[in-house]
Design a protein that fits this description.
- The chain is an alpha+beta fold and 731 residues long.
- Strands 1, 2, 3, 4, 5 and 6 form a six-stranded mixed beta sheet that branches. A five-stranded mixed beta sheet has the order 12-16-14-15-13, covered by helices on one side.
- It is built from 28 helices and 20 strands.
- It is globular, with a radius of gyration of 34 Å.
- The chain has five domains: 18-169, Hypothetical protein af1432; 215-361, Beta Polymerase, domain 2, CATH 3.30.460.10; 373-489, Beta-grasp domain (Ubiquitin-like (UB roll)), CATH 3.10.20; 492-648, no CATH class; 650-725, Alpha-Beta Plaits.
- One of its GO terms (molecular function) is guanosine-3',5'-bis(diphosphate) 3'-diphosphatase activity.
- Residues 405-466 form the TGS domain.
- This is Bifunctional (P)ppGpp synthetase/guanosine-3',5'-bis(Diphosphate) 3'-pyrophosphohydrolase.
- Residues 64-163 form the HD domain.
- InterPro entries: ACT-like_dom_sf, ACT_dom, Beta-grasp_dom_sf, HD/PDEase_dom, HD_domain, NT_sf, RelA/Spo_fam, RelA/SpoT_AH_RIS.
């Protein structure tokens, strides 16, 4: 979202030479690396944009053209090509003026027009809420970024300039934009390795989201800076003296940690500012990789390292291509000092990330690897898009994946996968391949079988065990951490529910058609086309799914289908109705058929079902009190019966009245187990002395199995009465 929207400005200044001077500075910059004809093309884009934005002003009162020029200056810092610079100058003309994509294509080419289009919002589409509109705009931008990385580089420059000039925006909007920048744009900059941009966006967001906290912390840093100057000076002198002794030629840079980083550490670790000691750090830049490790050895000989604080991002780079060695040392007066060691090439990538492609074209080998990683991440956005039905859902998944990966796990063959902290074997399985995740049933971590909800740690070796006919469990959504895993699980479950609903809807409609003396097989294509056209439905599968999910009543659909068939065949609708018969269910269909929790129907019970809108068929015992209360609405009740089957288990509840003797619960539980039933839940109510009521929820095969369990419990000496619980009075 562009926060610098143009406004009519009755108070605005007259046209001045300021925009022209800004462009002359930009022109001087791009002339250092672009050919003269490309500079001319960018200048033409400037004049075109200036003319389009004539009479428009920013909230600050400046001519609006100053914003595109400033954005283009930022883009030029990465030495981007003429197409990107042209798109940066034109990035708002499609939104804020009458200029069309066709005009841009004609004047500046198709590629530039596509870049501008990727940066433009979906202003002409109606959305139900601001959140949905924002999510859809992000989806468009991120997918355009997956096609051409220059889209997001221009958008990040656009956001940075808007954040730098946010003072003129009203406070509430300022906080909202700052929060959005922290949640989306700063993490994207980090994911692309644009470290300098990432830090500045964080600092500006912190300043505008929490202005008072920013001011207090800023003053505290200034005060601490004087107190710790002596420590920093001593460390710097010691490093400059020690490294040459080990034959290391190095450039040493002191750096002060950013305010937002200190603030986040205080929040996450519940520390006061006085407890955050490592607010200063050093960066050591050396000629080659062997010198990096030699430098770490010399530093650890000079000062004691803090155990567990050494991190090797050279051997295992971060997902954004970042490479360095990190260590924390106990410096003078016991003050911790953080040191980063890297090569000059690593420093380029750390500061410029994917923009290094345009800045440092002599590092082709390392840059190609970085671009390969970036391409893999961008491809994952396409995968998330295909698995996410809603824009808000897509944005949620992207947000999850934007936070830094901190856990590194290994496949049995030694492949390294980086995941979010808190990731589980299910996340790991989906990171390997979507099919592996969908068929995952168990896992081994470091050779031991562990639950799928186990959090992975750095260095874990994970082996995923799959089964051919397995599928995702909805419970996985409670503990998966990665956006890919969450998106693929939801996609699979939605697809499975749709397929089940289609099959159920087909059976329900076939049953309802019998009242009209018809079956689905007798309905002609002409009748179907006529009915579907009148109903506004695309195809039969969609109609069946609507019936299965309770969005349409089968009796009404059957009547209209029969009328369409009668019109086609010319027969009078006076066919003697046939008995409807019952729809047979297995009871284990999943989302499309659900067994009511109020009465726990099991095979052998007389059952009836109701269609619940959006949820499919809910099956009750025929004498369930819920059924008695709702009998009046006959259109939603369906006659159902049990399909013969073996091996499936169903929930049933029993109440056991016992004399309160020691060990009675254990004896009753043992009797239930001896009858081959599994106990899912047990509760205990104290009755009038000396009796106690035990309520069990069991898994049984059918009524016969339940009767066998009841007989086994009834013969226990302390048991006085056993009964099945068929209804829940609370419902």
């Amino acid at each position: 979202m562009d926060v610098g929207r143009p406004v009519p400005a009755p108070f605005g200044p007259p046209a001045s030479s300021v925009p022209t001077l800004d462009f002359e500075r930009l022109k001087a910059k791009i002339s250092t690396y672009l050919r003269p004809e490309d500079v001319g093309r960018v200048e033409a884009a400037y004049h075109f944009s200036a003319a389009a934005h004539t009479g428009q002003y920013r909230i600050s009162g400046e001519p609006y053209i100053t914003h595109p020029v400033a954005v283009t200056e930022l883009v030029a810092e990465w030495n981007l090509d003429a197409q990107a610079l042209t798109a940066a100058l034109l990035h708002d003309v499609m939104e804020d003026t009458s200029v069309t994509k066709a005009e841009i294509t004609e004047r500046f080419g198709r590629v530039t027009a596509e870049l501008v289009d990727g940066l433009s919002k979906l202003d002409r589409i109606e959305f139900r809420s601001q959140e949905e509109a924002q999510a859809e705009n992000f989806r468009k931008m991120l997918l355009a970024m997956a096609t051409d990385l220059r889209v997001i580089l221009i958008k990040l420059a656009d956001r940075l300039h808007n954040m730098r000039t946010l003072d003129y925006v009203r406070p509430a909007k300022r906080r909202r934009i700052a929060r959005e920048t922290l949640e989306i744009y700063a993490p994207i900059a980090n994911r692309l390795g644009l470290n300098g941009l990432y830090r500045e966006l964080q600092e500006l967001s912190f300043m505008h989201k929490y202005p008072l906290r920013y001011q207090v912390l800023s003053k505290a840093i200034k005060a601490a800076r004087g107190n710790r100057r002596e420590v920093v000076g001593k460390v710097l002198v010691a490093l400059e003296a020690r490294l040459p002794q080990w034959g290391i030629s190095a450039e040493i840079q002191g750096r002060e940690k950013h305010l937002y980083g200190i603030y986040r550490k205080m929040i996450e670790k519940r520390l006061s500012f006085s407890q955050v000691l490592d607010i200063y750090g050093f960066r050591v830049i050396v000629p080659d990789v062997p010198s990096c490790y030699l430098t770490i050895g010399s530093l650890h000989a000079l000062y004691k390292p803090v155990p567990g604080k050494f991190k090797d991002y050279i051997a295992i780079p971060k997902a954004n291509g970042y490479q360095s060695l990190h260590t924390t040392l106990i410096g003078p007066y016991g003050t911790p000092v953080e040191v980063q060691v890297r090569t000059r090439q690593m420093h380029h990538v750390a500061e410029s990330g994917v923009a290094s492609h345009w800045l440092y074209k002599d590092d082709e080998s390392s840059l190609s690897e970085l671009h390969q990683k970036t391409h893999s991440w961008l491809q994952s956005l396409i995968d998330l898009q295909s698995a996410s039905a809603e824009a808000t859902e897509f944005l949620e998944h992207v947000k999850i994946d934007l936070f830094p990966s901190e856990v590194y796990a290994f496949t049995p063959k030694g492949r390294i996968l980086s995941l979010q902290r808190g990731a589980t074997p299910v996340d790991f399985a989906y990171a390997v391949h979507t099919d592996i995740g969908n068929r995952c049933v168990a896992c081994r971590v470091n050779g031991d079988l562990v639950p799928l909800r186990t959090e992975l740690r750095n260095g874990d070796q994970v082996e995923i065990i799959t089964a051919a006919h397995a599928g995702p469990n909805p419970a996985w959504l409670a503990y998966v951490r990665t956006g890919k895993a969450r998106a693929q699980i939801r996609h699979f479950l939605k697809s499975a529910q749709h397929d089940e609903a289609v099959a159920l809807g087909e059976r329900l409609l076939n049953q309802a058609l019998r009242e009209h003396g018809l079956t689905l097989g007798q309905i002609s294509m002409f009748a179907w086309d006529r009915f579907l056209g009148d109903a506004g439905v695309r195809d039969r599968r969609e109609m069946f799914a609507d019936i299965g999910l309770g969005k349409r009543l089968p009796v009404i659909v059957a009547r209209r289908v029969a009328e369409a068939q009668d019109q086609e065949s010319g027969r009078p609708n006076v066919i003697k109705p046939k008995p409807l018969g019952a729809v047979l269910i297995r009871g284990s269909e999943g989302t499309a058929v659900q067994l009511a929790k109020c009465c726990h129907p099991i095979p052998g019970d007389d059952i009836i079902a109701t269609i619940r809108k959006g949820q499919g068929l809910e099956v009750h015992v025929d004498d369930c009190p819920v059924v008695a209360r709702r009998r009046g609405d006959r259109g939603r009740w369906i006659d159902v019966g049990w399909e013969p089957a073996e091996g499936r288990l169903f929930e049933a509840a029993i109440r056991v009245l016992t004399i309160d003797n020691r060990g009675v619960l254990a004896k009753v539980a043992a009797a239930i187990a001896d009858a081959d039933a599994n106990i899912l839940n047990v509760t205990m109510d104290v009755e009038q002395a000396p009796y106690t009521a035990l309520q069990f929820v069991l898994e049984v095969e059918n009524r016969v199995h339940l009767a066998r369990v009841i007989r086994a419990v009834r013969v226990q000496p302390s048991v006085t009465r056993v009964s099945r619980i068929k209804s829940d009075a609370k419902r």
